[in-house]
Structures are given as C-alpha cells and as structure tokens.
Write a structure and sequence with these properties.
The chain is α+β, with helices and mostly antiparallel strands. The protein has 2 domains: about 45 residues, no CATH class; about 80 residues, no CATH class. The chain is built from 4 helices and 6 strands; from the N terminus they run ββαααββββα. Strands 3, 4, 5 and 6 form a 4-stranded antiparallel β-sheet that branches. A hairpin with a 2-residue loop joins strand 1 and strand 2. The longest helix is centred in the middle third of the chain and has 17 residues. It is elongated and about 75 Å long.
Length: about 160
C-alpha cells in the first residue's frame, strides 16, 4: 500500500517518507477487508521505522571569521545615516506568490466556508505577484511595490525609483 505513495531522497538511501496519514492507511485497509484502528496503523508505522518528523536546520555552514566586524561596520553606517538628512531604507523582495483561489494560512471571521483549490498548481493561477518592500526606518513608513514578472536588479531599481 505504501509502495506507490512513498518518496525519498536520492542522495540519502535511508531517507524516505509517505504522504499518507495513519487515517488514510486505516481507511484503505478497511476497503480491502482489513478494518483496523488509526492507533494500530500508527503502531505499524512505528514498527516499520516511520515517525512524525520535520526537517531540522542542523547542518552548520560555519560563520565567517569577520562576521562580528561586518555587523559592527553596518551599525556604524546605520548611525551615520540616522544622523544625516538621507533616508535609511531596509529593502527586501519576498517570495513570489500565485494569484488565484489558493489556500493561505491564517484565520478570519466569515459567515460561510471559503473553498479553495486543494493544490497550488501554477496552471490554475490567474498570475503571479512578486512583492518588493521598502521600509524607511527614519519615517517609520513602508512601501510595497508589486511586480508580475521576475525579481531582477531592474525590478528593484524601479521599485526604488517609484518610492523616490
């Protein structure tokens, strides 16, 4: 049953997973005349070496030898600019997002259930949007520029020009 619904990491032979939940497996077993509880399926998963896991940030990339000096220099520049008449901006581009009837995390008050697609396939999207944000630290004001193509240096410069 898991054979068709198991994937893995080709670089690490022992790293495999299934997208089936214990409830999914229990339901499929019942359809084949083997009714079992979700608890039994969880025990079977455990016996087979499966467990509920999530990726962990574990592999250290080491720190640069001058890391602290870099942050001290940035702090010096920040203080210098806070004292000047020039704006002090924080600029960032966020992950491109599909536009359309897709699921988004979060809760809101509504009178009816909001129904969305069960998968975020780009072919079902009405388009994409790339948010590019500028935050003026002196004025405590933010500006959001929305693009529809690619995150390029030209896009960033256009956003900065629009802000200016």
């Amino acid at each position: 049953m898991l054979e068709e619904r198991t994937a893995g990491n080709p670089m690490e032979e022992g790293v495999i997973w299934t997208d089936l939940t214990a409830a999914d497996v229990a339901e499929r077993l019942a359809q084949h005349g083997l009714p079992v509880s979700v608890h039994v399926v969880e025990q079977l998963f455990e016996m087979a070496g499966y467990g509920r896991r999530q990726a962990q940030k574990y592999c250290s990339m080491d720190e640069h030898a001058d890391r602290n000096a870099q942050f001290l220099r940035i702090a010096e520049f920040k203080q210098e600019y806070f004292a000047s008449l020039n704006p002090l901006l924080s600029i960032d581009t966020l992950k491109r997002a599909l536009l359309g009837n897709f699921y988004r995390k979060g809760k809101l008050f509504t009178k009816e259930v909001l129904r969305t697609f069960d998968h975020d396939y780009p072919s079902f999207a009405d388009g994409v949007v790339i948010p590019h944000g500028l935050y003026d630290m002196k004025l405590n004001r933010g500006y959001l520029h929305l693009g529809a193509s690619h995150d390029t240096s030209e896009f960033a410069c256009d956003a900065l020009e629009d802000w200016w």
